User: What shape does this take?
Amino acid sequence: MMNRLPDERVDPAAEVLALLIRNGIDYRREKDGLRFALCEGGHQWETVCRFSPDTVTIYGVYPFLVTNRAQALEHINAASAALKRGGFFLTDKRIALRVSADLFDAYSAPEAIARALEYNAGAMVHFWAHMAECAAQNSVFQIEDTETNATTQ
Assistant: This one.
């Protein structure tokens, strides 16, 4: 972190970019944020960050499609009740987890963002099997072998 004045405003996008670069995480800029993949314990998911003046909102998105909406909402409610921060929701046919980092000052901003990303990742992995129960057997990341008509994940 650069030397900063205590009352200096924080640029949420610049702080997230610095963290991603420092950790060697590839990302894609979008009009309204950043998108990148995270993985842990053999699980990989998409992470999206959106920014407002003093907040970074982090969305972890599971890679599988929901096939049973009622069951998905049941699982989402149960998992959200167990969380201390953030909450799960259903967007289109995918389950996402939203967590935010409030950036109160320039000194604590990098740590607040890192903690929010770690919390999001931990919850994504912790609830992986629970959320996968209401999803299609195949994830949205499928590779089809046209010679044998086999599909792999």
